[in-house]
Amino acid sequence: MTTTTGTTTAATSSDGVLAAARRLADLLDGHAAEADRTGQLPPEVLKGLLDAGFARHFVPARHGGTEGTFTDLAHAVRDVGTGCVSTAWVALIYATAGRMAAFLPEAGQDELWAEGPDVAVASALRPSGSATLSGDTWTLTGRWDFLSGVDFAGWALLCVAGDACTGEPAQGVRYFAVPRDAWTVEQTWAPTGMRATASNSVHIDRVRVPRSRSFAHSRLLTGTDDPDAAACYRAPLQGSGPPLFVAPALGGAAQALTRWAERRTKRDDTARLALARGTAELDIAELLLDRSVAAADTPGMSRETVARVMRDAAVAARLVRDAVDRLVDLSGSAMLSEADPLQRAWRDVRTATAHGALDLDRSSTQYVRDVWGWTHD
Predict the structure, then answer these.
(1) CA distance linking residue 153 with residue 40, whole number of Å
(2) CATH architecture of 14-112
(3) Quick one: how many helices (H) and strands (E) in the chain?
(4) Which run of H or of E encompasses 280?
(5) Which residue from 126, 170, 179, 250 has the fewest beta carbons nearer than 10 Å?
């Protein structure tokens, strides 16, 4: 198993990650089909991803990180998505997991980034397992699913529900930073799309984790209240996370629409309407995405703004999905082959937009409650 840690040529600014993302998208054009077939990103792609600066994007400056913006990350991930949605998704996870790790106590951060800011960190967002505190050490056991890019990660952030944490009063979900040599990867990822994210499971048994490598989920949920902290750490999770999950699908959908238009030989009224409507849907989705990440980059998000960001992200995901679905309806038997790039784009977009953070029913409930004052009937 390969473990990816630091590199020395990574981008050192947000401008760098944008330019590097465009170069990476060009590299991916020749690798996306192979990655989909094998279910793994090639080593040169993973190196390019880290060299582009994704892992360091939200890492604190004192560890050599960028402390970047949500806007630049969303744009960079979207650009990578035009070449490969799976790569864009792993890039996003490595970046956002770095932001999560910044909520560790300083001693834990020092340990995680001891070799530099370009450490690949995978994260589990669903609580699982159990943790027992004795003195200053937690003992962790369990299995966690859906850790994108975990096969090549040097660290994993694993979360445990409060009622499964013993040894201290229940305080909600806790995260634990665990190094690569403490867990075993289980090959459980066999999806319809985004196959190359290799979002496998990890299993650990009675692993000891010091307090310095643990933090409460509530800190991530609300963001820090430190007025001197970088803006990326002050944003609440619900107001910053959902729009980022749209970006890989948006890039993949834009490329799919371009390829469909280039190879469409029957340019009748149906095709013209599909192209006009599809490009408009993607433009609207991008406008919603840009407004949302701009809000996340502005400290002091109100509850109403958070609700609007969640709504906009879910609606943008629907628009992206609908635009690609329409291409499928108009492509006939050409879409039957798994090797067809349009089918791969459709599978990838469908998988990406199914993420729980983009659930329109849930976000609409919160939106009408927090913005309009409606209560659930």
Answers:
(1) 13
(2) Orthogonal Bundle (1.10)
(3) 13, 9
(4) helix 269-296
(5) 170
* Cα angle for residues 59, 60, 65 (degrees, 5° grid): 55
**Residue 2 scores a pLDDT above 80:** no
- The Cα 138–Cα 79 span in angstroms is 40
Catalogue the E-assigned strands of the chain.
121-123, 130-134, 137-147, 155-160, 165-166, 174-179, 184-186, 200-210, 214-216
- What pairing do the DSSP bridges indicate for beta strands 214-216 and 174-179? antiparallel
Domain boundaries, the chain: 14-112, 121-194+202-212, 235-370
The CATH number of the domain covering residues in 235-370: 1.20.140.10
Cα separation, 366 vs 356, in Å, equals 14
Contacts of 184 (CB under 8 A, 6+ apart): 202, 203, 204
CB 243 within 8 A of CB 293: yes
366 burial type by CB count under 10 A (0-12 exposed, 13-18 middle, 19+ buried): middle
Residue 334: both structure tokens together: 């050409």
Give pLDDT tens digits for 133-180. Answer: 999 999 999 999 999 999 999 999 999 999 899 987 767 899 999 999
Q: What is the pLDDT of residues 331-348, one digit of tens each?
A: 877 777 888 899 999 999
Amino acid letter, 353:
T
CB 236 within 8 A of CB 222: yes
Between CA 261 and CA 259 the distance in angstroms is: 5
- The crossing angle, in degrees rounded to 10, of helices 341-352 and 303-329 is 150
| Alpha carbon separation from 67 to 64, 112, 134, 225 (Å, rounded) | 9, 16, 34, 16
d(CA 48, CA 45): 5
The three-point CA angle 54-283-80 to 5° equals 25
Residue 1 CA to its chain's centroid (Å): 23
Class of the CATH domain delimited by 121-194+202-212: mainly beta
- Enter the pTM of the model: 0.94
